[in-house]
Design a protein that fits this description.
The protein has 8 helices and no strands. By secondary structure, it is an all-alpha fold. It has one domain. The longest helix is centred in the middle third of the chain and has 33 residues.
Length: 171
């Protein structure tokens, strides 16, 4: 998976990674794969928390299979749809602020932003499952949120400044 090498660079220079992906001509199929993969990783990271909820609630909780099924539907089906909507809204907001990019670039910035911070989601899930310190999990969640917005908005600013037709022309 070549995109794994782009994760650390995204955390430092998110705009550069998004520009490079736009220059390579990342297709809509790849963007959908980014969105679905980010949703699937988030779903898998949620499983230890669901098990902990089940154990803590005992017989008062719904069956674990029900909670896992509902979580899967949310993360695997509805989350990608919500991501498309959020990407469209971010592109419209960027247009109002003078952005000149495309819908495709806005989707790339959001989907790549979500996928590139999934290692922090996994770390947060592990800490939640293994650590008695809830403050540590909350701290990692705050770092995750900050990193996500850093990567997403940095990528969006780069995508809105790039004319994709110029990228595709040899020159």
């Amino acid at each position: 998976m070549g995109f794994l090498r782009d994760f650390p660079e995204s955390w430092i220079h998110p705009g550069g990674v998004v520009r490079r992906k736009l220059a390579r001509g990342v297709g809509e199929d790849t963007l959908l794969a980014y969105a679905v993969l980010a949703g699937f990783i988030a779903f898998a990271a949620r499983l230890p928390g669901l098990i902990a909820i089940q154990r803590a609630a005992g017989s008062d909780a719904p069956p674990l299979a029900t909670m896992v099924g509902a979580s899967f539907v949310v993360y695997a089906m509805f989350a990608p749809l919500f991501m498309y909507l959020l990407a469209a809204l971010s592109h419209l907001a960027a247009r109002l602020l003078g952005g000149e990019g495309s819908w495709h670039g806005a989707r790339l910035a959001l989907f790549w932003g979500l996928l590139s911070v999934q290692p922090l989601v996994i770390l947060s899930a592990l800490v939640t499952a293994l650590s008695p310190w809830t403050w540590l999990s909350q701290l990692i969640s705050l770092v995750f949120a900050g990193m996500f917005f850093w990567v997403w908005l940095g990528g969006l600013m780069a995508a809105e400044r790039v004319d994709e037709d110029d990228l595709k022309r040899p020159g």
